[in-house]
Design a protein that fits this description.
Blueprint lengths: L2 H20 L7 H28 L2 E3 L9 E3 L5 E3 L2 E2 L4 H45 L3 H39 L11 H13 L8
Antiparallel strand pairs: 1-2, 2-3, 3-4
Helix pairs in contact: 1-3, 1-4, 1-5, 2-3, 3-4, 4-5
Length: about 210
């Protein structure tokens, strides 16, 4: 797992909002619509809770740009395990590993929050579009309503991107202090730039091309 995974997960959430808004339920019955949206919301919450639990209690997989790099994980206790064997570390390295894992957990959980809120905005877009079809609201009015709700979400995503430089700094310190970890230190400032650029360009009202 690396910074690319975090930023791309957030961006995917934002970019999927138009698709969710365009592919939701089409039944004109308010009751059927409400039931359908509530069911989707429940499933999304369950999935988010499962992700959080896995983040806190499971091994965190590390990825490498080296194709022959063996499988590596950081355990919940902060141990680095490569190819099934625990790497021997000193107290300084242990502290860096724990800090690295803590930041992964915090960023991933923040991303899960954004995803959950983004799904809520998408479902709101479905409801607004269907209500607008029967109330006579213009497309522009509906878009303004959804964009107002989405603006806060995009700000949160931007703040998540702002956390990546600190994460990368911790990664680089760990790689310098623990050579066995170095092949898995593949996040860089280009990922931060991509995250910020794509997040700022995400929209919930423009239909997918």
């Amino acid at each position: 797992m690396n910074a690319q995974h975090f930023s791309r997960a957030v961006l995917l959430t934002l970019c999927l909002l138009p698709l969710a808004a365009c592919s939701g339920p089409t039944d004109s019955s308010d009751g059927t619509l409400a039931t359908g949206l509530n069911s989707v919301a429940s499933k999304i919450r369950d999935a988010s809770d499962k992700v959080r639990e896995e983040i806190r209690t499971g091994d965190i997989d590390l990825s490498s740009d080296e194709t022959d790099a063996p499988k590596a994980v950081i355990t919940p206790q902060g141990a680095l395990v490569i190819d099934g064997k625990k790497v021997r570390t000193n107290p300084t390295q242990d502290a860096l590993l724990r800090d690295y894992r803590r930041q992964i957990e915090e960023i991933a959980e923040a991303g899960a929050d954004i995803g959950l809120k983004g799904a809520g905005v998408a479902m709101t877009a479905v409801g607004e579009a269907l209500k607008g079809a029967f109330s006579g609201a213009s497309e522009a009015d509906i878009e303004r309503s959804i964009e107002a709700q989405a603006s806060g979400l995009k700000q949160e995503a931007s703040k998540l991107c702002d956390r990546l430089p600190g994460f990368i700094a911790t990664q680089d310190k760990l790689a310098a202090a623990l050579p066995e970890f170095a092949p898995y230190a593949n996040a860089d400032m280009g990922d931060v730039a991509d995250c910020r650029s794509d997040t700022e360009g995400a929209s919930v009202t423009s239909p997918p091309q």
